[in-house]
Predict the 3D structure of the following.
Amino acid sequence: MAPKAATAAEKLETALDYSNVPPFWKRKNGLLLYFILTSSFFSSLASGFDGSMTNAMQLLPVWQDEFGHPTGSTLGFFGASTGIGGVIPLVFLNWLPDYLGRKWPTVIGAVIIIGSSIMQTFSTSLSMFIGAKMILGFGTSIVQMGAPVLITELSHPKERAIVTSLYNTSVVLGYVIGAWVTFGSIKIDGQWQWRLPTLLQAAPSLFQLAMIYFSPESPRWLVAHGRPDEALEILIKYHGEEDPNSTLVLTEFDEIKAAIALDSENTFTWKQFFASTPNLKRIAICTAVAVFSQSTGNLLVSNYLSPILKQAGLDSAFESTLINGMVTLWSYIISIICCFLMNTFRRRTFFLWGSGGTLIIFIVWTVGAQQFTENGNIAAGRLVIACIFFFQLFYVIAWQVLVVTYPLEICTYQMRAKMWSYVLLVIYVAQIFGNYVNPIGLESIGWKYYIYLCVWIAMIWGIVYFCFPETMGPTLEELEAIFDGPKERSQRDVEKLGIEKEEVDHEEVRVYENGKP
């Protein structure tokens, strides 16, 4: 029997009717909206590009010769450097999206990424290269503070889950581009074998700077800052096909006003994260999502493929960079497919099947690595390479697309930007730990290091099964009822806004229980 968490969202039914809403490519301004939002989609691309560089540089003979063939803890610090830089703004600048808006962090971060890419390109020592990676992590962190929140709050509610999930696929796209650029540059003689891919890290940020100017601000942020007329104009243009009398837009707009009016009665501070049981549940689940997304073995594949392939008997730079490119492209294809299935399968289905699959694959991977290492079994080494591709399939299903969507869905408006900054902080800390420890573990105990991952992934599956609520279906405002309670939430919305129930049309945030109003 499924736990209560599995059926939490089944008691909610959205107040908005999307049945008559045409797909975005048939709606007026639908294509325009998502084209403009590409500036935000590219926010994770630089991070993925850098992650791919961490992997790819280790596969390039010229880079290895230039920087002294780093191994062990030195290699670990090299891999963790981007995360170290990313932690700083999340601790000290997490107020940016709430104070400046959802757009400005993209501008600030993109400029920093461009500068750090140039510095990295012309590095003359490993210390300088690592320093540039830390600055790049600083910029990437700032960019990601506002971008996913803007996408979540600006997307049409019909496509919100799909579009928000697509955001994190830009990380994988960054890996794809970085891997194949590196594969193409392997035939270049001299220092530009590694300088060219490094310099091209600036390209996504240049595109962002060009596109963010045309992006509208978040309607929810505008309402919260006393600019409801601007917010309504944006909703009418991009959600209502420029119809000021659109029932969907009016309902959505009034739900936003009601939720923000309720949440704004008291200024939300970091202290309030721990002030109530619902918020403690939110932060516990968000922490789990962030940690699990970075601790299921993905950092091994994304950043330390070189030593893994060597343990599987593959030492050719050409073949290694080719496999790196194929793995990233495979991951990207799976990510896109999963995003478009977000409205077909429940969130828990993705989490449970993905986590279960990674567990099975890692058990097989561990056996294959042991057989090749101790017995020299060539077939077992090839099995490990195959497991890398199957692992990416299940990892993407569980964690790649939902690490953004799920935390943003379970938060109130007042919490959303701060909680996302917190999630990013935990992700970066988990990355720092994993990227530092993984090469040390592989070097010290070899294939036995995988046993730890098998046990850990099994624990993850159990935590997800018993603790993660279902969120598919309701609007962002209505999802608050999963944690705050449907009756309590809807009653407070009416009473605190001074609205008589008989007069409520659009003003009440309608949370349905058991399919009935």
About this structure: The chain has one domain: 10-482.
